[in-house]
Write a structure and sequence with these properties.
With 79 residues, the protein is an alpha+beta fold. The protein has one domain. The chain is built from 1 helix and 3 strands. It starts with 9 loop residues before the first strand and ends in a 21-residue tail after the last helix.
């Protein structure tokens, strides 16, 4: 498994913003990208996560332990 693959990521529609917003709760608080389509948002989100992991590892930083699981209530993240 690649280091970035351990982090849960999801995209959801925002009525307020009228766009799809990408989330990765283990690395970022709140949404980190947005797009007109779900696929565009997910693709952008995956790139952001990959860049973050590469950046942290290049600096010698430890990655945070993944804490969010699909079975948990994620309402607080996307609220």
């Amino acid at each position: 498994m690649k280091p970035g693959d351990q982090f849960y990521r999801f995209v959801r529609w925002s009525e307020e913003d009228q766009c799809y917003i990408g989330y990765c709760p283990d690395l970022y608080f709140g949404g980190v990208c947005h797009a007109d389509t779900e696929l565009e948002a997910y693709s952008e989100l995956c790139g952001i996560i990959q860049d973050e992991v590469i950046h942290r590892l290049a600096k010698g930083e430890a990655l945070p332990a993944p804490m969010v699981r699909v079975t948990r209530d994620l309402g607080f993240v996307a609220a």
